[in-house]
Structure formats: C-alpha cells, structure tokens
Amino acid sequence: MESYGTRRQRKVLLAGSALILIASVLAVLGRRGVGPHPQSLPTYGTGGVEASPGELGPAEELLSSPGASPGTLTSPGRPGGGATRAGSGGSGSPWQPPGGKTYPVANLFTPAEDRIGITDTQITLCGHAALTLGAVFNNNEEDFGVYWRMLNDSGGIYGRKVVFDWQDDQYTGNGAVQAAAACKEQNPFFLVGGIGFDQVPNVRNWAEQNRMLYLYSMATEEGALDKKFSWSGSPSIETVGRVLAQLTLRDYPGKKVGVAYVDSENWRGANRAFVVELARHGVDPKSIPQVAIANNNDVLTDKVLAMKNSKAEVVFLNMNALAMGRWILESDSQQYYPVYMGYGFNLTTETFGSTMKKFPPARAVWVTPAYDPQDTSTPWYPEIKRMQEAFRKYRPNKTPNDIDWIVWLAMKSFHRLLLDCGPDCTRNKLAGMFLGGYAVTEPPLCRVDYSRGRIAGYLLNVYTATPRGDTVYWRQTSTCTPGF
Question: What is the mean pLDDT of residues 390-415?
Fold first, then answer.
C-alpha cells in the first residue's frame, strides 16, 4: 500500500505536469472581496524594530491615539486632498505623514486618478496570484482574506474598511496581464503582485501603460529600474543568486558547483548573479555546469543525469517548489546526492522530505521567516500564534500553512504602509513616500528601504533542511542577512 507521503508526492507531481489544466480549480474558489466585520484587533508586540529618528516603528503605534478607538482618525478633518498633476513621477510639494519624516508628493497621477480606490469609508485593493495552484498548496482566496477580516473587525484603517480581491493569473505571464486588467475594473487604490517570476515582469509593463500603482513580490531586476509606477519591497532574484553564491563560498569552499535553471529571461537573472558572484571570488565560470530546463514542468531525467555526470557537489536549483521536488526525486532515483540550494517553501519539505533526508542538508532562502509552528522558541512564533488564532476564528476548518504565512505577512506590510501614509493618503503621496526614501522594519519581516531605489528589499532569511522523524523541515539559520 502506498504511504501517505508517496500519495502526496504523486498528487503534486501530477499537478506540476498538468499545471494549466488545474485552472478549473477557480470554479470553486470564488471571487469575493473582504467586507467589514466589527470585532477587535489583536495587539502586535513582536518587538525588534530598527527605528531611527524620523523613521517609523511598529504598526500598533498608529492604530490609536490617546482617547481614540483603534483604527480611528488621529488627526482632525476628513481624509482627502493632496492631488497633484500627472507627470514624470518627480516630486511636488513636501508633506508630512504620521511619524515625523517629510516626503515629496509625486507627480504621477492626475487629480481624477489620485484618489481612485480610497474613500472616507473604504480602501479597495486587488492582487493577481496563482489561484490555479490553490489545490496543490491547499489554499484559496478566503484564506488570503483572513488578515483583512481581522483588521476590519477592529474598525479598519483610520475608519476605512479594506476590501481586497484576488484575480487568478494562471501562473503565466499572459494570465497575469488578464488578471491585472480584471483588477483595474474594480478601481483599486493599488495593484498587488503575488509570487511568480514569470508574471511580474509582464504586469510591470502593463502597469506603465495603464497608469496603475503596482506593488509586487520577488522578481528579476531586468526591466524594473526604469518603471515609474512599480515598486517592490522584496529582494530581487539577482539578490537571491548573489547571496546563495556567498553562502556556497562560505560553507562549501572548494566544492564543484552547478546550476539548474528555468530557461526564461524571467529566471536567468538569479543564476547569472550566482555565477558572477562566484567568479568575483576566483571560481572559473567555465567550471560551473549550467543545465537548463524548458519550464517548471519539463521532463528531468536527462537534465539530472547531465548534472550528475558533471560531478557537481553543490547545485543551485533555480526553479519553483514543484520542480525542485521533482528534481530531488529524480536525483534520488539516479543515486546522485549533492547539496541542493533553492527557494524555501514548505511544499518541498512536506512533500519530498523523506527523500530529502537521504541528501546532505539542503539550503534555501526566502523573504519571510521559516514557518514552523512546532518551534515555539523563535522570535516570530508570537506572530504565528496570532495568525493561527485568526484562522481559528475566521477559517476554523483550515490549518494555516506557509503560503498563508507569506500572505499574512505581506498583508501586514501593506497595513503598515497604509498606516504610515496617514489618514490623508493618496496615490501620489504613497508614491512620494517611495521616491522620498521610505524605510521601515515591520517585524518579523526584514527591513525595506526605498532610498535604495525601485526594489527596496535587500535582506534574506536562510534555511537549512533539518531532520525531524522520518522527514526534514526548514530551520532558519540566518535572519535578514544582506549576504556573507
């Protein structure tokens, strides 16, 4: 009889090889925004904020003022004003949101565009994500709305409820553009880009053409730095490649290194940065075998064999979690056991952990702290507990996983951003904060700093695959590191 782990592996492999067919999952996901729910918001109190004079601390400080209820206005007057003419994105008159630092007002949006998606009572947001993969990751958009339901139960943000809708991008670049267009029909204050290296670049271009404020997750730097309407608080995939190369040099000196990667311009930036960083420290690029896979669903037998024949001892798998797991299974079948490196998703360890245990400990990086609810000793466990409590209230039949954790922390960061923009926030004021070098640490996330440019994320968490019973889990071994 098949074990549970074998059945789950088979389920994931079938899902990975028939990715487009899973689009039918959308029929059961629904497309509902999150409305108001009057209850109380749990306090934060995670600590560890790096706050300099004029910078901003934890989110709770702006939830209330003496004598005010959480989420109520803390300055006199009605929200509004601040609209400026459209232009190149340069700065207009300075303004000062809560927190004391002065920012310019951007010239991106016309007065008619400046307050789209924000009224006295509601903030409308919309995002694109691979809802197609919901069945594989055991997630749907009801799960992704838990944070906002909790927040709206407290009174929202400065008295405004947050309505956040998700559109399926089918895990493709063209699908992401279609999802962005569907979001635009809802007139959001800004558009959010979920995880997807192939999706984000297409939507960045779409956002320029459609004058949409776009805040996106990890993607390539290629084509990003000249955009006027797009920003990211996540590190780029080039940063991932550089940090993993430095980790290799520190922990595996003298080992032969290889790279297996998705053969797409949207993925290649990570392995280019990886190879360049190794070369900068004396490794001959010609000695680094690079094996391309056509896409994340490619047949891997010959690819793994080519890497095995190269005798690479440390291999960067620049591919998604499903492909990484399939590669590890094929590597095991060929009795090839190098150190593997990649992106830290629990789907890989939970599905393929019994196989991964045969290998030297794999290494991974990601932007959020490792999600391990069994470890109550981590500094971020109080936030895990807070999320679990919210799920028990709003999604009682769902046990949250690491994708829920990633989304929860992303929504928390948007909450922080909207609070910091203040009760009179507009699109131009929000863009002005980015142009003016907005920087913040919202625990347990790493610091972001827009004085660095359009890509404000530069710190990563490093995970190590660690045995637990007959499987492995991701244990965080470095926190918010810029490199080694």
Answer: 96
